[in-house]
Amino acid sequence: MAQIFDLSKLLAETSSISLKKQAExxxxxxxxxxxxxxxxxxxxxxxxxxxxxxxxxxxxxxxxVASSTWVIGSLIHACCIGFTxxxxxxxxxxxxxxxxxxxxxSLAVCMGFSCFMALAGALxxxxxxLWLGAGHEIYKDAFWYFLIFSLSSPLFEIVYLMSxxxxxxxxxxxxxxxxxxxxxxxxxxxxxxxxxxxxxxKGAALGSCAAAFLTALIMAFYTLFKSxxxxxxxxxxxxxxxxxxxKAVKMAVPVGLESSAFSGALVxxxxxxxPLGAVSLAANSFAxxxxxxxxxxxxxxxxxxxxxxxxxxxAKRPDLKRSFSWITIIYGMTIMALIxxxxxxxxxxxxxxxxxxxxxxxxxxxxxxxxLFAEPLFGASIVAAGAxxxxxxxxxxxxxxxxxxxxxxxxxxxxxxxxxxLAGIWIAMAAELCFRxxxxxxxxxxxxxxx
Length: 451
What we know:
Elements lengths: L6 H7 L5 H34 L3 H37 L3 H29 L3 H4 L4 H16 L1 H16 L4 H24 L3 H26 L16 H32 L4 H37 L3 H37 L3 H15 L2 H16 L4 H26 L1 H28 L2
């Protein structure tokens, strides 16, 4: 199969696409995204180790503002989603001029929003660490890290937007490779700024900023000058389209609110765990880190699901919408189940690598193995959300996710933490992930039924 998947061109050659061919398309489109997600997680581990080598106060400074930087990142990413889904629909319909029009509107709106977020973050940077309870020893590092990250928001927006546009046009390979490369850029720049120039935590933030700048530069050059769909050479209509922007906002707002609320819920869970002591807090953190290796491939498949279902919507092929939805979901569940089985047996070695403390190792293994039984349905929830997003359906899935997290997980956590300690928190997590997977599968089944 070619590097670019364009459903409108494929349908021009043949109106019938066998299930075997669809499965092959899903597999080939998913691989670059999965590799990029895995490399991203691995580089995050390396980043944490680099900063951790500086001392506990430096790690604490970054940890203090981590949830706030995550909120900024999730909001600027959500801003792109409403436009990228519209691009998938236009590509599926074979409307190249419409693709460029959506792209032009996305550049104006997303860059404007990211600049606003950069300004807002900069204005908050002096006060935020104090609001979060920073002590004198970590305040300065926390301030600088959050300030630099906030100011780099437009750079990350370019990466998110151009990646999403290319992916939804069917080009999964180039953004997948470049997003993976950004992690290596980050590692190299971090080493330069943290150790070579002896800039500490400030250097870690500058390293990420420099990696984003280099990636954004390459991504923008390729998209604007090399892409079949997004090259603007000779394009003359740079007017804003109110309907396009309204559709984008309608899809993006639920995703942005969901991401922000998700971060808040994790803070609440951490507060529930805190009274259990340092061992439980450390084990929870390490187990969460190890679990990310299991679910990040699911997000790579999610990108393929959004692209395939979105293009099928544009092509007005409900049969392909249905089949691509279920094939990607089954693929995601299978991959995450297999990785979960491997992690079940490998996690003792993983935790030996992370920490020498035997008590923390034992508790980390215990709680992670509880959650690993939920990986197949967790995979279903991740990929189903992507398939629904390809339809432009974001409001109800976001509401279901928020209900599952805030009502099901938090309620069960409060009930189970007293009798079972940290294990109770992870039993609640596993139950909630299964519930989330089931309700999103039902949502996919209902939307497929009424196509």
